[in-house]
Amino acid sequence: MAENDEREPDIPAVFYDSGDEGSFNGFELRRSNNDSDSDVDLEGLEDDSGGPAPGVKPAHKLNSLSSNQTVLQGNDATFNCLTEAFPTATTYRWFKDGNRITNSANFEIFDAGGVEESRLTIKKAQKGTAGQYSCDGTNGVGTGERKTAFLLVNYKPRLVTVTPDPADVELGQSITLTCEADGFPKPSYSWKFNGAAIGDRRNTLQLASAQVLNTGNYTCMARNSFGSAEETRMVNVKFKFTSIMNS
């Protein structure tokens, strides 16, 4: 009786351009010198130990305590760019509002080649450093998709202005005072006349028919949850003196 031939089962082959060869998740990887056979996407394949196969671009996770951050002006903010790739990413790039950023007085970037994380610190965050931040990482296979997060910077109102300046109005005419302030979150407004509160809570105050008794100091206060600031404007109601002669 003839003995049965024992043969190893056929293993499907995947051709690729990496210098590594071996068995990955039931696939035999063979290096190919034929360009037409080298365009095989190995992303998602795993080696025998459960790790990713060679040739996987970095996939990114941009996070810290939360993806988007809000800090008080003058405090530092930090974003971490995490990658999942094999081999691990060797270089990272950071961007603000789409523009490349590097180490400077405002930004500090820390990473080491061949690690899975890069850290960006925005130093003493100001209004001008608020915006959209993103990162990407590159390994020998390519550059991963860029990921994005936002930085918001809170600060108390400043640069309060009241217009017009000067605020002169003819007797019986109307005048509108407009108050503007820079702050985040957006400020709310209130008014005082000669130190006494006026009920109007808008950023505009109108005197529909100015009278002499409306002459005085008008103060606008801008306020948010981080503080307040104010500006005062003098309103002059002008009128002509009329001479009365008795005969």
Profile the largest sheet.
7 strands, mixed
Q: State the shape.
A: rod-shaped
Q: Taking all residues together, what is the mean pLDDT?
A: 78
Q: DSSP strand (E) fraction?
A: over 45%
Into which percent range does the helicity of residues fall? under 10%
Rg, Å, rounded: 34 Å
Pfam family, one: Ig_3
GO molecular function: axon guidance receptor activity
Protein name: Hemicentin-1
Region (Disordered): 1-57
Please name the defining characteristics of this protein:
Immunoglobulin-like, five-stranded mixed beta sheet, disulfide bond, 0% helix, Hemicentin-1, 247 residues, Ig_sub, signal
Structure description:
This protein is mostly beta strands and 247 residues long. Among the domains are: 62-154, Immunoglobulins (Immunoglobulin-like), CATH 2.60.40.10; 164-238, Immunoglobulins (Immunoglobulin-like, Sandwich). It contains no helices and 19 strands. It has strands at 13-16, 22-24, 27-31, 56-63, 69-72, 77-86, 91-96, 99-101, 107-110, 117-122, 131-138, 147-163, 167-170, 175-184, 188-193, 196-198, 204-207, 216-224, 227-238.
Question: What's the SSE blueprint?
Answer:
Elements: E1 13-16, E2 22-24, E3 27-31, E4 56-63, E5 69-72, E6 77-86, E7 91-96, E8 99-101, E9 107-110, E10 117-122, E11 131-138, E12 147-163, E13 167-170, E14 175-184, E15 188-193, E16 196-198, E17 204-207, E18 216-224, E19 227-238
Parallel strand pairs: 1-3, 5-12, 13-19
Antiparallel strand pairs: 2-3, 4-6, 6-10, 7-8, 7-11, 9-10, 11-12, 12-14, 14-17, 15-16, 15-18, 18-19
